[in-house]
């Protein structure tokens, strides 16, 4: 900054706050805003007062009232609760992550709140009622993987939120009270833009739904539940041809040419359709009804569609503009090679197991070949989730060479500790190749037979890695030590069934404070080690989680008692007070 | 839940080596019975090599089981059913032979065959509860074939039509003797009266307890009301 010429301009550090607030509005990333706020008090003041969007990735990292006080102008808030492994049943149901304190604090401090998202939290009907009555301009409610509420709570939302634009219910567990929540939208209400009730199990009143869809001309996203038959899906589409994202209801019916014609005609009218999901129990007979929209699709989620064979492949091969494909392993290697040659713009691929627990004979549908083909032919591919039964180091090395642009690589070999099925070696070499080649890798999940060697590579090379998931891997504490002493950007680490003990944790205790959270279950941790960690790091909450019903107080246990489940996270708020009996904070 | 339902005690089978691995078949026909002492056999290959589990091999081969002698035990006396399987915990050479298709012990990861008293792995494979509800706890119904001692279970939620179901049944009960269900590689199509491509006659017990011919009602109604299936010769 040079000397000001002419009339004295204020020095930059005494410019009014409004100028900085305007400047900060050009920083979309929260991390950048946070960094700016650290520069000086002036910037801190300006930034926090102008923050409109707040994401709280761990609801226990701060007291809700402190968050609301610090950022008084927030219009959109997202709060996440339970750790990721809660999705797989590893957390006791009463663990916590209650939304109520957040809703109460928001109702007090953010009267102009427009958007609220909760992920993996316990949301009650009272919370929903409070939301409906506290925010006069409430527009967007997103609940993802939550539980604790019923359709009665939804009825409060649909009745009370006059300006509601989006109601997105994704993979929640909702008790059906047969409350007519859908009917509670007033007849004059027309502002709905997105409605997702795919996780609801019960029936909805179809006439009411049809009327709603007819009068909401801005409806862009509609995701139905499994209870809506194909015939009705077609009728709805006729009323909403402007739709961009559709989740079909049940997509199977005995073949009937009339119904087929109706479905086909309905889809033909949806020229804006870009994203398709749902399709539970899709049968091959009706897939051709979709053909007319294939060309326009950018996202296709067939991961609940247990359809296989040539019909599936023919259908996907027509979707030449796909960016995102989620599918079951019933697509098989052959299907993926067709995807490789047809979907050249593909960015994200997820392949889910059709028979994860081996109930139907443990047939192998998919091998490493499919992933090798797709990674070789899809230059934009950067995110993969792949469940399969076998892998080789050679395949992983080839994948790493072909696709150094991976940002997210998650491989789940169904059988724990599976080695390279040809050489019988551990998969260290393969995963090392992935982290060495993919310099931008942000998320990695590993499986199969892995020794401490692979962790050396990861610690040394995975500089951008933010989230790492390990299962049945490693030989000793050295492995964990390599991860914690390397991986500069690590935020979340989740580990199960690995032979890691207290030593590596204690040696790298300071690292844990730079991370958001650490989860470990079925490792070799001890009560004493956890106590030492808690003593050493007062800003960490160290939770020992037992199975419900086992409430032996930690203080009375000997030093070397094993710890089955550990959850460690940094927090400004001190230890939480809402723990159930089976959780103890040391 | 018990690993072996009570009536499985009548069908204690022995594994015999087979050129391609391990096989067993269900039968209590007298022509197959070699010995009236039914004991438990150990697998030929140790499971630590991460081979496909024994149950997988068994299922992929079919269900050919023959009775035979077991290795002598240290006490030199006959073992009862309970003893034979309690020994599994101490001497890990016994196998879970009867798997009724439900979860828990059948597929709990490498080493599960040997340590068959270990509880199933929680949360593995890492699929969300919504997905595992959709796939694993789907509608499993028992299927019996007339004349076959061992039944199977089929997951109706993996099928969307009669054609798919009949194809799966044909695969589970391949044609081996005259008059039995079977199929070549061509698709099996239901033509509305319960018959499949090669003379399958499939009946089902509905919610009222009546035995009906498969194929008369729309698939969804069938899938909701079926309690179990029976294939007639």
TrEMBL record, chain A:
Keywords: Auxin signaling pathway, Nucleus, Ubl conjugation pathway. Its main location: nucleus. It comes from the Eukaryota. Pathway: Protein modification; protein ubiquitination. GO terms for cellular component: nucleus; SCF ubiquitin ligase complex. Pfam families: F-box_5 (PF18511), LRR_6 (PF13516), Transp_inhibit (PF18791). It is found in: Nucleus. The keyword Nucleus applies. One of its GO terms (biological process) is SCF-dependent proteasomal ubiquitin-dependent protein catabolic process. Residues 14-52 form the COI1 F-box domain. Residues 72-118 form the Transport inhibitor response domain. Part of a SCF (SKP1-cullin-F-box) protein ligase complex. May interact with auxin and auxin-responsive proteins. This is Transport inhibitor response 1-like protein. It comes from Lolium multiflorum.
UniProtKB/TrEMBL annotation, chain B:
Residues 95-114 are annotated as: Disordered. It is found in: Nucleus. One of its GO terms (biological process) is regulation of DNA-templated transcription. Transmembrane segments: none annotated. InterPro entries: AUX/IAA_dom (IPR033389), AUX_IAA (IPR003311), PB1-like (IPR053793). It comes from the Eukaryota. Aux/IAA proteins are short-lived transcriptional factors that function as repressors of early auxin response genes at low auxin concentrations. This is Auxin-responsive protein. It comes from Lolium multiflorum.
């Amino acid at each position: 900054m040079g000397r000001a010429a002419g009339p004295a301009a204020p020095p930059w550090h005494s410019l009014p706050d409004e100028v900085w607030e305007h400047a900060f509005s050009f920083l979309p990333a929260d991390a950048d805003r946070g960094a700016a706020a650290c520069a000086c008090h002036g910037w801190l003041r300006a930034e926090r007062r102008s923050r409109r969007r707040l994401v709280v990735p761990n609801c226990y990292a701060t007291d809700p009232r402190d968050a609301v006080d610090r950022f008084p102008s927030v219009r959109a808030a997202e709060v996440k609760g339970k750790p990721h492994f809660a999705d797989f049943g590893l957390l006791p149901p009463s663990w916590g992550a209650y939304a109520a304190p957040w809703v109460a604090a928001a109702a007090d401090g953010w009267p102009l709140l427009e958007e609220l998202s909760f992920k993996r939290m316990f949301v009650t009907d009272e919370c929903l009622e409070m939301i409906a009555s506290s925010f006069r301009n409430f527009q967007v409610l997103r609940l993802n993987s939550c539980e604790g509420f019923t359709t009665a709570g939804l009825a409060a939302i649909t009745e009370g939120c006059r300006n509601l634009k989006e109601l997105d219910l994704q993979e929640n567990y909702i008790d059906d009270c047969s409350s007519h929540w859908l009917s509670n939208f007033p007849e004059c209400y027309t502002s709905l833009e997105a409605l997702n009730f795919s996780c609801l199990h019960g029936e909805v009143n179809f006439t009411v739904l049809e009327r709603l869809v007819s009068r909401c001309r801005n409806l862009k996203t509609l995701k139905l539940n499994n209870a809506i038959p194909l015939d009705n899906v077609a009728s709805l589409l006729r009323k909403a041809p402007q739709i961009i994202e559709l989740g079909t209801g049940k997509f199977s019916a005995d073949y009937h040419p009339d119904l087929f014609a109706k479905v086909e005609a309905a889809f033909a009218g949806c020229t804006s359709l870009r994203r398709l999901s749902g399709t539970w129990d899709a049968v091959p007979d009706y897939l051709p009804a979709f053909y007319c929209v294939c060309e326009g699709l950018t996202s296709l989620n067939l991961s609940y569609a247990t359809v296989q064979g040539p019909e599936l492949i023919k259908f996907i091969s027509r979707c030449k503009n796909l960016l995102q494909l989620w599918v079951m392993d019933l697509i098989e290697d052959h299907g993926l090679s067709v995807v490789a040659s047809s979907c050249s713009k593909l960015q994200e691929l997820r392949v889910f197991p059709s028979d994860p627990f081996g109930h139907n004979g443990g047939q192998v549908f998919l091998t490493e070949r499919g992933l090798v083909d797709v990674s070789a032919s899809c230059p934009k591919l950067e995110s993969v989730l792949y469940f399969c039964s076998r892998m080789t180091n050679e395949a992983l090395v080839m994948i790493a060479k072909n696709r150094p642009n991976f940002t997210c690589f998650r491989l789940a070999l169904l059988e724990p500790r599976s080695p390279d099925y040809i050489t019988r070696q551990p998969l260290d070499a393969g995963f090392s190749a992935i982290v060495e080649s993919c310099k931008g890798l942000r998320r990695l999940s590993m499986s199969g037979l892995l020794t401490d060697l692979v962790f050396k590579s990861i610690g040394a090379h995975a500089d951008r890695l933010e989230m790492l998931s390990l299962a049945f891997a490693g030989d000793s504490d050295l492995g964990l030590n390599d991860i914690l002493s390397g991986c500069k950007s690590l935020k979340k680490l989740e580990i199960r069934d690995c032979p890691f003990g207290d030593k590596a944790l204690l040696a790298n205790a300071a690292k844990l404070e730079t991370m958001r959270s650490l989860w470990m279950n079925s490792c070799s941790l001890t009560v004493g080690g956890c106590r030492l960690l808690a003593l050493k790091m007062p800003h960490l909450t160290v939770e020992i989680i037992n199975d419900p019903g086992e409430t032996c107080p930690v203080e009375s246990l000997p030093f070397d008692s094993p710890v089955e489940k550990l959850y460690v996270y940094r927090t400004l708020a001190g230890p939480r007070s809402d723990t159930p009996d089976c959780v103890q904070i040391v | 839940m018990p690993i072996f339902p009570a009536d499985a005690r009548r069908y204690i089978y022995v594994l015999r080596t087979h050129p391609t691995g391990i096989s067993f078949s269900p039968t209590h026909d007298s022509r197959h019975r070699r010995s009236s002492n039914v004991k438990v056999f150990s697998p030929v290959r140790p499971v630590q090599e991460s081979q496909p589990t024994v149950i997988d091999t068994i299922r992929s081969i079919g269900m050919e089981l023959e009775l035979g002698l077991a290795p002598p035990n240290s006490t030199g006396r006959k073992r009862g059913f309970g003893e034979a399987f309690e020994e599994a915990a101490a001497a890990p050479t016994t196998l879970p032979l009867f798997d009724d298709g439900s979860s828990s012990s059948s597929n709990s990861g490498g080493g599960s065959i040997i340590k068959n008293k270990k509880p199933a792995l929680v949360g593995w494979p890492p699929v969300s509860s919504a997905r595992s509800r959709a796939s694993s706890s789907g509608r499993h119904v028992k299927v019996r074939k007339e004349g076959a001692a061992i039944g199977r279970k089929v997951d109706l939620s993996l099928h969307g039509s009669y054609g798919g179901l009949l194809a799966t049944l044909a695969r589970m009960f391949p044609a081996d003797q005259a008059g039995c269900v079977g199929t070549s590689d061509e698709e099996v199509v239901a033509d509305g009266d319960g018959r499949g491509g090669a003379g399958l006659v499939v009946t089902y017990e509905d919610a009222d307890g009546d035995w009906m011919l498969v194929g008369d009602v729309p698939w969804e109604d069938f899938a909701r009301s079926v309690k179990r299936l029976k294939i007639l010769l």
